[in-house]
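Exercise 3.2. Students should predict the tertiary structure of the chain below and write it as structure tokens, then compare their answer with the key that follows.

Predict this chain's 3D structure.
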Amino acid sequence: MFNFSFDKRTIYIILGIMLLALVIQYTANPGMLYSLLISAPGVLIAITFHEFAHAFVADRLGDDTARREGRLSLNPLDHLDPIGTVLLLFAGFGWGKPVHVNPRNYTRKMSMEKGEALVSIAGPVMNFILAIIFAIVYYGIVKLASLSFLDSEMGGIVLDLIGATVSINIGLGLFNLIPLPPLDGSKVIMPFLPYKAKSFFINNEQIFYIVFVVLWITNLTSYIITPGINLVTGWISNLAAAIWGLL
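Answer key:
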């Protein structure tokens, strides 16, 4: 059984150094800088609604911790984690400030474990809902807007903003479904694990933090997420296009 202490601040230092390298790379390339600016609104929307969904579901289940801490809010400043937000901007995936919950306050209509799973999956589900909504708006503009608008610089910027918002929400939703702490997926799968696996997962959570950093440093995270992003993006795009009769 692994049992040792690993300071999470070390993880943030490593991610911070890698983040600095990404910032330098982006600022040296005007095209990448445009992509960064286009992504900013989508990042704010994705993280804010993701964390709000966690807080909202926990509150509905009877736990008012998030409400008391001011997290039952759609103010982006209440939800942004500095490193997680900037990573989402530069790398396409990241996280918000964790919403604190107390499973002991959940309604007794379900186990605390199932309540935690429901609260955890609420964030990614919200991101997928937002992706669908913005994709419908995107294809609605393509369908209804004039050719002069679509061919204009303003039209291109509007479509780029909406398209980036769709992609960021899909990326954030899928990234957080990876079953590694501290991501939502680790709590979503917990009720389905056998007892021994569950105990190992809980007692060795810090090991999974290290695995998470290794995946990030080696860029394996991109290999894991990118196929899923492409698949989900295709589904959502086809759905939105079909709604407007563009398929």
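Discussion points: The chain has one domain: 8-243. The mean pLDDT is 85.
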